[in-house]
Design goal:
- This protein is mostly helical.
- The chain has 2 domains: 55 residues; 127 residues, no CATH class.
- Helices cover 67% and strands 0% of the residues.
- Helix 3 runs antiparallel to helix 4 and helix 6 runs antiparallel to helix 10.
Length: 221
């Protein structure tokens, strides 16, 4: 009997059924990406948006989910080894935006809020600035992803229960509609309930201004 393969495995320290360090690292990286809750939420949102006929929204959400999943798998955006994450100081160290930035954000929200919903001008005016900021911050070493302190079990369970309940309610409302692409006031989804506010110019402008403010806060975390 040829002992060549067995001798080769023994020489490399690998037995039957054992994986190489590289295969183990790839598997652990993929598992880390799949287990990331942000990646999972964006992926599911993209899938359901696609089922509801919102093709553009679905493509954007899935693209962001894949990009974040890739970064999570590669382990990018973390603090260097030995660096202190400064737990509990993130919110208090978020700088206030300068007056020029505030005026620019208000002007942006007022102008873009005047565009029609789901129109190409509105889509471009949101996607292009967001993509530019994302690329800049993603490549800038001064914006590392900080390691967070362990989650409180009770708080984590409460938030998970809330998100699962909202997801089930959204899915039930979507399936109870006349069709996946037809809205229903009897079984409204979250987007249907926000339609009255976002149907007006002031409502869209306020939503855009809140979106910009949230982006500023996230950039400095």
């Amino acid at each position: 009997m040829d002992d060549g393969p067995r001798a080769s495995r023994e020489a490399t320290g690998l037995g039957v059924g054992e994986r190489t360090p590289r295969s183990r690292s790839v598997a652990s990286a993929l598992l880390a990406a799949v287990r990331d809750p942000v990646v999972a939420i964006l992926f599911l949102a993209g899938v359901f948006d696609g089922l509801a006929g919102n093709v553009i929204h679905s493509i954007l959400l899935l693209a962001v989910a894949l990009a974040l999943g890739r970064e999570r798998a590669l382990g990018g955006g973390r603090l260097p080894s030995g660096a202190s994450p400064d737990h509990g100081t993130l919110a208090s160290t978020t700088p206030s935006p300068p007056a020029v930035a505030v005026l620019g954000a208000v002007a942006y929200a007022v102008i873009v809020g005047g565009f029609g919903r789901y129109s190409w001008p509105a889509t471009v005016a949101v996607v292009v600035p967001a993509a530019i900021v994302l690329v800049i911050t993603w490549r800038d070493a001064s914006y590392p992803r900080r390691e967070v302190a362990p989650l409180d079990p009770i708080g984590a369970i409460a938030w998970i229960a809330l998100f699962v309940a909202l997801a089930l309610w959204e899915l039930a409302a979507l399936l109870l509609q006349p069709s996946l692409t037809t809205d229903s006031q009897a079984h409204p989804t979250i987007s249907v309930m926000t339609d009255p506010a976002l149907a007006t110019h002031p409502g869209r402008s306020i939503a855009l201004l809140l979106w910009v403010a949230l982006g500023w806060f996230i950039m400095h975390q």
